[in-house]
Amino acid sequence: MNPTIAAGKFDQFKGKAKQSIGEALGNDKLADSGAVDQVKGAAKEAWGNAKDAIQSIADSVKTCASSDAAEATQNAANTSHDIRARLTSTAQNVKDTVCAKAQQIQRDLQRPTL
């Protein structure tokens, strides 16, 4: 448990006890002090809950960012692979076309002309 929440709960408990004792003894100062402690404790507890919520949000954002970064890295690797594959395929096709054309030219030159 968050220490701020624990301190807030303790202050509220202490304040309720002081207020009850003050009211039982007819001591308004002690009862008022207990009420102040309860309000202070409630504020501490609320602050602790807010800090926990913010931490949860931050953790969630970090997790999403890490996940998104890993996904982006994988997408970049996949895209790079695809580009390399298309580039080498295109180079192979150009080579095959040039070789075929060169062979055709050689065959044409070997035929006797009439």
What does this structure look like?
Helix 1 runs antiparallel to helix 2. By secondary structure, this protein is mostly helical. The longest helix has 83 residues, at 28-110. The protein has helices at 3-25, 28-110. The mean pLDDT is 88. It has two helices and no strands.
What's the structural blueprint in terms of helices and strands?
Layout: H1 3-25, H2 28-110
Helix pairs in contact: 1-2
Query: Span between N and C termini?
Result: 101 Å
- Distinct helical segment count: 2
Measured by DSSP, the beta-strand proportion falls in under 5%
Assembly form of the protein:
single chain
- Rg for CA atoms: 40 Å
- Give the overall shape: rod-shaped
Contiguous uncertain segments of 5+ residues: none
Largest sheet: none
Structural class assignment: mainly alpha
What is the chain-wise order of helices and strands?
HH
Helix content: over 70%
